[in-house]
């Protein structure tokens, strides 16, 4: 299947989307990397995501769409609001974080990841929210995601392990200028 990146879109995550998000977390290709969320009940997903949907937490969640069809979830937040990396990197004002998953198995490994990220960075992270740089933190073993993020323009910053029993994270960063120079097509 050849997919057209121009058909990628975003809409704000809503309470009605949480059943879909719950199903995506249970998909094997998602559960591998979202282990904490994979075992959540629907009520636990609601408890975790509803506060940000209601504006009670500084996370901005979106549904990724392809030709209007929901295919995944992506979110952004200010790193300063969640100083997880303090002690590993210099956290500056205007630095955002981003997390994403493609939940619909029909759209996994189709080459959309880097296009999704570039468009989301351009329109939302650096556009709407005015961030100056953005971090993403795949696990070091998630080589498919790392390649996609590199293709989107992210560069390796450092490798961190936030807790003794936690996964090793391949922390990557992109600057606003790297995306601003990008043509509108996202290529």
Topology overview:
Elements lengths: L7 E5 L5 H9 L1 H4 L3 H4 L3 H12 L5 E8 L2 E10 L16 E8 L10 H16 L4 E4 L6 H10 L2 E7 L6 E8 H5 L7
Parallel strand pairs: 4-5
Antiparallel strand pairs: 1-2, 2-3, 3-4, 5-7, 6-7
Helix pairs in contact: 1-4, 5-6
| Relative strand content | 25-35%
* Count of alpha and pi helical runs: 7
The shape, in one word, is: globular
- What is the rounded distance between the termini? 18 Å
Our Rg estimate from Cα atoms comes to 16 Å
**Oligomerization state of this entry?**
single chain
CATH superfamily: Gcn5-related N-acetyltransferase (GNAT)
Poorly predicted spans: none
* CATH class membership: Alpha Beta
Q: Report the strand count.
A: 7
Rounded mean pLDDT is 91
Question: How many distinct domains?
Answer: 1
Proportion of residues in helical segments: 25-40%
CATH architecture: 3-Layer(aba) Sandwich
User: How are strands sequenced across the largest beta sheet?
Assistant: 1-2-3-4-5-7-6
Helix-strand pattern, N to C? Answer: EHHHHEEEHEHEEH
Which fold name is given in CATH as the topology?
Aminopeptidase
Largest sheet: 7 strands, mixed
- Class by helix and strand content? alpha+beta
